[in-house]
Amino acid sequence: MQINLITGISGSGKSVALRAFEDAGYDCVDNLPVTLLENLVSTLEAENSERIAVAIDARRGKSIAELPKILENLRRTHQVRIVFLNANTNTLIQRFSETRRRHPLSGKTQQSHEATLIEAIDKERSLLEPLRAQAHSIDTSNLPAHALRSWIQDLLKDKPVGLTVVFESFGFKNGLPSEADLVFDVRCLPNPHYDKILRPLSGKDQPVKEFLEKIPEVVSMESDITQFIEKWLPHYIADGRSYLTVAIGCTGGQHRSVYIVSRLMNHFCAQKDLAELQIIFLTRHRELDSIPATVI
Hints:
Elements: E1 2-8, H1 14-23, E2 27-29, H2 37-46, E3 51-55, H3 67-74, E4 79-86, H4 89-99, H5 117-132, E5 136-139, H6 145-156, E6 164-171, E7 182-185, H7 206-213, H8 216-238, E8 243-250, H9 256-269, H10 272-276, E9 280-285
Helix pairs in contact: 1-6
């Protein structure tokens, strides 16, 4: 059975993600108590269910600490994937303010006062950290709902089980992606933004590609990043990693980083020896997919 656990910080888009699983034909359960997860799996297995998605968050309190052990037991006989949704604190505060929802951990603290929103968010991050460390993480801080659904759909495409490598472009002006494992800074490369014709285009457009591929520094940077990933990718696989996010950043996340990500994707997808290792390659373009954070 394929078991997908959807978890993460409240307000980061878990409901959107769960609906994407539901649209893909998964049996879905929201806000399941941790102690009932194994019983649910047994019940659905008896009903010949092959794919399930379960949303669990930190509102269950101390029982969330039992979840890593439960998942370890389930992995002995099932495929288990954890999708962890995250967002920066300022974005979460904005979302809770606009929806007027209470944070699920906004109860009394040990000091016998009502927890502030920031205190509740910090407590939730602490409770869920053991899960985040072993999950496929998605930062939804600047991500619209339709882009999150699209990223989940890419994740659900039927592919062999192995290491999932995500090449993600981003703009440093909007901060680092929280899920990034490796970060490469390409801001030192010539910027198409200063060409009035190229400025409204992106690194996906042919004129920008032709501009960048003629610059020796761009070719050299791409080669260096490619060689670094090729050298260390087997070590990440040997380490038992399930997910690796390689983030490429330029100033605005529109031209240079997008171009390099596309080039990396084309290069690694063409490597037949990597296909034998069952590596899945995905791309994300954070800024190109982004609109104001309040949409989730």
